[in-house]
Amino acid sequence: MAAQFGRRLRKGATATTVAALAVAALSASQAPGVISSSVDQRAADATEPPGTPVSGNSPYFTDLPPLNTPDKPGTSINLPAATGAAEAGIPASVLAAYKRAETTIEGSDPGCRLPWQLLAAIGKVESGQARGGRVDADGTTLTPILGPVLNGVGFANISDTDDGAYDGDKAHDRAVGPMQFIPSTWATWGQDGNGDGRKNPNNIYDAALAAGRYLCANDRDLGIQSDLDKAILGYNHSREYLRTVMSWFDYYKRGSHEVPDGSGVLPVSTEPDSNGNNNGGNGGGKGSGLPVSPGKTPPSSPGTPSKPASPNKPDDDKPPTEPANPGGGGTPSPTPPPTTPPAAPLTALERLGAATVTATVGENFADRLRVRAKTSAGKTVSGAKVQFQIVGETGAHFPGDTTRVTVTTGSDGIATAPVLSAGGEAGTFTVRAKALNASAPAASFGATVKAKPAPAPQCDALARTSDEELTAETDGSFADLVELKATYQGKAAAGVAVTATMVTEDADAPAKDWAANDKGPYFEGGEGEEDKTVRTLSGLKTDADGLVKLPKIYTDGNEGTYKLRLTTADGVVLIVDLTVKAAATAPTADPSGTPTA
């Protein structure tokens, strides 16, 4: 972003010597906050994300984190006193805004894995946490925080895009607010983080949420270092900026705490900017307009750390450990051993349920995907973060139209993915479950999306193609085969399924309630079928002309009138009468040779 900060270790031989000592000590001891040269390579490899830049890539100046991180007192040599735990204090409203942004984005884009500490790191670099938390009850800065005029003189040249509405400049743009958005970027990424119906870049809740959305753009996963680098470089495409933000990110992850609004630590800057304003440190850089009242001592100085009003009030996530020796010399007090042993690490994700799930286009998968987190000893792990990610192009998605969701394992160690929707395209894909912040192998599920079956053919009429009466003798068969024609709106209906059932007529019951018969006419069972007398025959289907011919109908030794019930899936019914007569008896001769009937 566009913030231009004064350095804590500023100018002159003494300051230069101290700075050199500090860098040497950090490099030698690998103290937290030191970013290796691999960051330079990552910065060189990473590319700025497409879209509107946040700041116009203005150069920036800011302090590095103190030598003593909140939970690691002391360093290897005696250096000037660092601010230590005071620097770990984040003003209450600013901290609340960062955490609210993290929660909001976790609900809408859980695959991004945005940590609030990243917003804190950028907020520190951009505006010194909104000038040490100088905000009102709604989170709006008490006075505007403005970056330098982007007129091409030492900075990007960006002509006015907001008619001066945000930055008061109708000729050129200036970065605005605690997260230093230029107006044109705010027009795209602005958010209403505090629910007041406005999108105000000078409000820390709005600005923090907008910054989070920007960092998560392009489907980034900030738990992956390459995506994290690209996100930070999208703010300000500078290797030094990447190193500095990563330093503060690492620092805040190691510990922080809440301090009252207005009491945050600010570095010192006594040089006026091009507009004649005294910046007073991390307040937005050159042109920020952060005044220092005459006669007042700036909030902090290189050797005198400011003391927060509530230094021992813990942050919601991790209480800081006060350094035993803030100056870094002498022998630090020993750290008491933990009262409980650390939890065993997660080493395996056990897939539960079917390895492959299936759904139809446009529908939800009936089976929920589940894995169980376990240690090497086979014990379950609760509270572990598991990410389910769809790999493949079928349009399948989780709620919110996302392809990645993060789920926390329950007390039983099980993480259950939200309902998976098939999308609108048939095909196959994989859902990969991986444990975040653990080296356990991923568990995979196969998924298939089937095309919707063709709609069943419609039929509104069923009729015989002949009006000949159907008669047969007992223990014989009907000479004529029964042929049917199905139509829909007067036209032949192809592919209509027909079921034929021999039924017993009950004069007191409607035709739909007639029961299947157990005697009289029947179809002959197929080869291999145990029962050779079949009185219900399905699987009949009309041809392209709407015709279907029933198999031969046989009779047993029972005579009488029987009913053949023919039905379609549309509920069309045709009843056909079948008459069975006693077989004629051949005449026989008596002993005298006279024929008898």
Task: Explain what the structure shows.
- This protein is an alpha+beta fold and 597 residues long.
- It is 18% helix and 19% strand.
- The chain contains 8 helices and 25 strands.
- It has helices at 12-29, 38-45, 92-108, 116-133, 183-189, 204-215, 225-235, 239-253; strands spanning 89-91, 257-259, 348-352, 356-360, 370-374, 385-391, 404-408, 414-416, 427-435, 443-450, 461-464, 471-473, 483-488, 491-492, 497-504, 515-516, 522-524, 533-534, 536-541, 547-549, 553-554, 560-568, 573-581, 588-589, 595-596.
- The strands form 7 sheets. Strands 12, 15, 16, 19, 22 and 23 form a 6-stranded mixed β-sheet that branches. Strands 4-10-9-6-7 form a 5-stranded mixed β-sheet, with no helix packed on it. Strands 11, 13, 14 and 20 form a 4-stranded antiparallel β-sheet that branches.
- Strand 22 and strand 23 form a beta hairpin.
- The longest helix is centred in the N-terminal third of the chain and has 18 residues, at 12-29.
- It is elongated.
- The N and C termini lie far apart (118 Å).
- Residues 2-37, 43-52, 71-83 and 268-340 have low confidence and may be disordered.
Structure in a nutshell:
The chain has 597 residues and is of the alpha+beta class. The chain is 18% helix and 19% strand. The protein starts with 11 loop residues before the first helix and ends with a strand.
Uncertain residue ranges: 2-37, 43-52, 71-83, 268-340
Class based on secondary structure composition and strand pairing: alpha+beta
Measured between the Cα atoms of the first and last residue, the distance is 118 Å
Radius of gyration: 40 Å
Question: What's the shape?
Answer: elongated
Count of runs of 4 or more consecutive helical residues? 8
Q: Total number of β-strand segments?
A: 25
Q: Major sheet, described briefly?
A: 6 strands, mixed
Proportion of strand residues: 15-25%
Helix fraction bin: 10-25%
Average per-residue pLDDT, rounded, comes to 76
